[in-house]
């Protein structure tokens, strides 16, 4: 399916409205119980292929519609919804990993996904290792006969290094050859959101998103998705999802459905503002380096140019090592338009300070503190003015 003109595809997405009521928005259906017409139906309806509704947990017309649209957004064939982005990450881990299997995670992966591996997966006898996502050779060296699942993330969380996904996937494919249980690749595609690049064309098996971010766009709902083109992989995710009881609610699905028609517009507006501010920030006193895949000199910039056609709403600034953390905290505290908080891709701009040396297992080259900025939908000049009034706090 064409990756162009996504807005039109999402706005004119096939949907069967109730007879005689063709509203623009799909209806919101809520259920635990779904009534069957007779015992034969109760015994034969199958939610797995969407040929029948059986129970709210296994899908409603509203969640099926959202699943179909997220699959379209990502250029995939199948989608499973989870109650948060983190639940979608954990679902993939639980669907594919068994005791004795090994998991590989990029060192710059989304933090809570690492925490799940360090907590539950380790306790279940499923060890993990971190690899350098900017080095396919490092990934190749860390794959073992027990490796079952390899996570990818583009770009990395907080520091936004853009990895060579086709090269990493090729390493996995080669190592996987001849295995009874091939190694599965799963991409955390929250940043790309199906818009910046076509994950499946780059070769990944599964694409996971926090729908909390771009698809919702409202900073008011939590949801996650797991999309694939592969029927067998989808089945594995779907069965694990059913056993865990990870359904999503109709009203939450509605919020994400409302966000989708404007996702491409929002993505491009936030992309433009973020590039402008990232570029401006690079020249400010006290700023050692700005991380944003579209900036020359940012790690993976060339790969981003080759594989992507847009960039997300995040940039990070590493400050000079001479600037103490208290001054960086004071800079963050003196911002007025930017608020302090987690998540991103909503209407409001956010920032958060990070101590990278405490986060990265394989090391971090900058001694100074780092702040990540998430650009919302405010006017870019108000955001620039806010940064400009707060930056002197770094110096005194
Ligand atoms: C936010 C985020 C998640 C988790 O999403 P939640 O809905 O907040 O659980 C996962 N991956 C990435 C890259 C994220 O930014």
From TrEMBL:
Reaction it catalyzes: L,L-cystathionine + H2O = L-homocysteine + pyruvate + NH4(+)
N6-(pyridoxal phosphate)lysine found at: 213
Record-level Gene Ontology MF annotations: cysteine-S-conjugate beta-lyase activity; pyridoxal phosphate binding
Superkingdom of origin organism: Bacteria
GO biological process assignments: L-cysteine catabolic process to pyruvate; transsulfuration
EC number, as in UniProt: 4.4.1.8
InterPro entries found in the cross-reference section: Cys/Met-Metab_PyrdxlP-dep_enz, Cys_b_lyase_bac, PyrdxlP-dep_Trfase, PyrdxlP-dep_Trfase_major, PyrdxlP-dep_Trfase_small
Named cofactor requirement(s): pyridoxal 5'-phosphate
Key words, A-Z: Lyase, Pyridoxal phosphate
Keyword Lyase: yes
Regions crossing the membrane: none
Record flagged with keyword Ribosomal protein: no
Gene3D superfamilies assigned: Aspartate Aminotransferase, domain 1, Type I PLP-dependent aspartate aminotransferase-like (Major domain)
Family: Belongs to the trans-sulfuration enzymes family.
PANTHER family hit by this protein: CYSTATHIONINE BETA-LYASE-RELATED
Name of the protein described by the UniProt record: Cystathionine beta-lyase
Source organism of this protein record: Hydrogenophaga borbori
């Amino acid at each position: 399916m064409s990756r162009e003109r996504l807005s039109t595809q999402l706005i004119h997405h096939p949907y069967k409205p109730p007879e005689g009521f063709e509203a623009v928005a799909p209806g919101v259906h809520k259920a635990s119980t779904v009534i069957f017409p007779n015992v034969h139906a109760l015994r034969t309806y199958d939610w797995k292929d969407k040929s029948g509704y059986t129970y709210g947990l296994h899908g409603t017309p509203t969640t099926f519609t959202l699943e179909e649209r997220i699959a379209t957004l990502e250029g995939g064939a199948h989608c499973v919804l989870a109650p948060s982005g983190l639940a979608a990450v954990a679902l993939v881990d639980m669907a594919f990993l068994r005791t004795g299997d090994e998991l590989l995670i990029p060192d710059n992966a989304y933090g809570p996904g690492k925490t799940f591996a360090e907590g539950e997966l380790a306790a279940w006898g499923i060890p993990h290792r971190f690899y350098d996502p900017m080095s396919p050779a490092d990934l190749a060296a860390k794959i073992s006969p027990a490796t079952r699942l390899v996570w990818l993330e583009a770009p990395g969380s907080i520091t936004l290094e853009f990895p060579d996904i086709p090269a990493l996937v090729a390493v996995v494919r080669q190592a996987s050859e001849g295995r009874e249980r091939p190694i599965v690749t799963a991409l955390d595609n929250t940043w790309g959101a199906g818009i910046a690049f076509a994950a499946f064309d780059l070769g990944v098996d599964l694409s996971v998103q926090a729908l909390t971010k771009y698809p919702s766009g409202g900073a008011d709902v939590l949801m996650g998705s797991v999309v694939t083109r592969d029927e067998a992989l989808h089945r594995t995710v779907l069965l694990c999802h059913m056993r865990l009881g990870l359904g999503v609610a109709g009203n939450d699905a509605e919020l994400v459905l409302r966000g989708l028609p404007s996702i491409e517009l929002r993505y491009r507006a936030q992309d433009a503002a973020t590039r402008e501010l990232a570029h401006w920030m690079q020249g400010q006193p006290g700023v050692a380096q700005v991380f944003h895949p579209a900036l020359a000199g940012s790690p993976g910039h060339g790969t981003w140019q080759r594989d992507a056609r847009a960039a997300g709403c995040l940039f990070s600034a590493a400050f000079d090592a001479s600037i103490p953390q208290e001054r960086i905290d004071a800079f963050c505290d003196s911002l007025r338009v930017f608020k302090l908080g987690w998540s991103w891709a909503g209407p409001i701009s956010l920032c958060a300070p990070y101590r990278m040396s405490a986060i990265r297992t394989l090391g971090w080259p900058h001694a100074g503190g780092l702040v990540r900025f998430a650009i919302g939908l405010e006017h870019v000049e108000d955001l620039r003015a806010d940064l400009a009034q707060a930056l002197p706090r770094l110096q005194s």
